[in-house]
Write a structure and sequence with these properties.
homodimer; 336 residues; mainly alpha; Farnesyl Diphosphate Synthase; two-stranded antiparallel ribbon; 15 helices
Chain lengths: 336, 336
């Protein structure tokens, strides 16, 4: 069962513009990624490349490259920083799969199913170490500061999510704090380091950070909606994964708050106690539809998307600026 | 059953001298550790402090402080680097417990038994992030380079161990490569950053690195012996843990190589296939005794201990140099 969320798609919702503008840089990033997963310990490139070459969009490293171009950066430190950002992201995915006991990732068996939890934990640690090595090679202490703070914040957000897990009383604000940490912080840091290595004024650095932070929040909220419908099959995720794992996401927060006592008992039974029957996912989606929880999660995502675009307004018109606006629209349009 | 390994203990085998010389600095390191495990997400300080305050000797951060003093360092960057080294070590322990499915750590229930694998993975990631933040604050790119390379090498060593797991055909050289990575590299990096932040000549940096590398190898080899006897009960480890987990350590490598066909079949059954009966640990210790595998592992450890002491010879006599020599003797004397 899938829900079609009504939402006007702008005709320019695409990452093609960004991909085109960054093609040359991304080729260098990909070569760097390939060489830095190399190790005589053959299990490391096997596990790392399983995930890295499994068809992610590489949105985060593209953001680093895009912001460096937007800031007229002329060096080549952005290549290693972008590769480092992708490694940080990949390390997070490897560790998340262990934490969530996931069986699938992007439609393929997760690394932990193929090589075990041990390899997922350790190869994640290896990639994190390699990410820091590349950042050190770039030599910007400020960029190192931003990305190392992000690493700690991401883990903090994940622990927060763990602590809030299965708690249907989670508020929207609490949930926002979780996704700012676990998802949006890396988007923000990936964007911020672009103008930082270009030595641009502080105002441009914070503007780029805002672009990333708000885009990251919007991205995660759309992801939350996709888990209850939309075209998620294409993404290699199973509809209902979050539900079965008892994850509290914004659609649940809204449906729970707006529901009556009987409905709240349903959510508590299914998500807190994990007693889930065959018809329960459909019932959950029904309740979300009744309370407009999915539509309103999309509305919230659009709000953050608008903030992201407004943060870009500081910069003069350019093909890169237009391409970034289209990426925001693309992230929102994924929901239908 | 425990084996007493005959080994002459020098009367000066103690860490008391080092502890005394570093008391003031260690107080600052401990305060830093405490403040940097702080988080509004209460599970983070809970998990981190469970392990950090559980009575480890803090040998690694003490080495950083000791080498900084030996190099006449006058700043205060060594405090944060020492705390960062301890965080890296703690993160490794948290992740190791998940990888090894350990139930005990230093005689207490491991973090994963108390808070789950999820928290162990994520709090480890948080500590790693905080470690890098502290290094960045110190501002030495060379120290950052050394410690970030160490982070990648440690993970690489652990994956190597995973790949070699249960393989009784592992050679002594292969085993040494594993422990250089998973254990000795952090000792080496912890020592090397002392003279690095003091801007001492390259020869002193490599000397300190050698002190740490060889001490780390000796330390791990003694640990391997303790797992088959000695006074390991005091360490909160169970005698035979490595055996039951099918870990190939140097005592096994030596006993296997020196054994006859029947004995090799025993090692393969127990360690590769994991078919272990009640009397098998005693039988394993008996075979090790027969082939002098434990004594010779201690001899190998003494060899690396001697290399560590000789690497110190570059430095003029001082109370700190003497204290470090006593630490090497202490690490060797743990075995009986």
């Amino acid at each position: 069962m899938a829900v079609i969320v009504p939402f006007e798609s702008p005709s320019n919702a695409s990452i093609d513009g960004l991909v085109g503008l960054l093609a040359a840089d991304m080729e260098r990033v990909n070569a760097t990624i390939l060489s830095r997963t190399g190790s005589e310990v053959t299990m490391i490139p096997e596990v790392a490349n399983h995930l890295i070459s499994s068809g992610g969009k590489r949105l985060r490293p593209m953001l680093t490259l895009a912001m460096a171009q937007l800031a007229d950066y002329s060096g080549d430190g952005h290549i290693k920083l972008a590769a480092a950002v992708e490694f940080m992201h990949t390390a997070t995915l490897l560790h998340d799969d262990v934490v969530d006991e996931s069986e699938l990732r992007r439609g393929k068996l997760s690394a932990r199913m193929l090589w075990g939890n041990e390899a997922s934990v350790l190869v994640g640690d290896f990639l994190l170490g390699q990410a820091f090595r590349m950042m050190v090679e770039v030599g910007s202490l400020r960029a190192l500061d931003i990305l190392s703070a992000a690493a700690a914040t991401i883990a903090e957000g994940e622990v927060m999510q763990l602590a809030a897990a299965k708690n249907t009383a989670t508020t929207e604000d609490e949930y926002l704090a979780v996704i700012r940490g676990k998802t949006a912080e890396l988007f923000a840091a990936a964007c911020e380091v672009g103008p930082v290595i270009a030595n641009r004024p502080k105002a441009e650095q914070t503007a780029c950070r805002s672009v990333g932070m708000n885009l990251g929040i919007a991205f995660q909220l759309v992801d939350d909606v996709l888990d209850y419908g939309g075209k998620s099959a294409k993404l290699g995720k199973n509809v209902g994964d979050d539900f079965r794992e008892g994850k509290i996401t914004l659609p649940v927060v809204l449906a729970f708050r707006r529901g009556n006592d009987t409905e709240r008992k349903f959510w508590i039974r299914a998500l807190e106690r994990g007693e889930i029957g065959a018809a329960d996912l459909d019932h959950a989606i029904g309740l979300m539809t009744k309370h407009r929880a999915l539509e309103d999660t999309i509305s919230r995502a659009q709000h953050y998307g608008a903030m992201s675009v407004d943060a870009l307004a500081l910069f003069p018109p350019s093909p890169m600026k237009t391409a970034l606006e289209e990426v925001v629209a693309f992230c929102l349009a994924r929901s239908h």
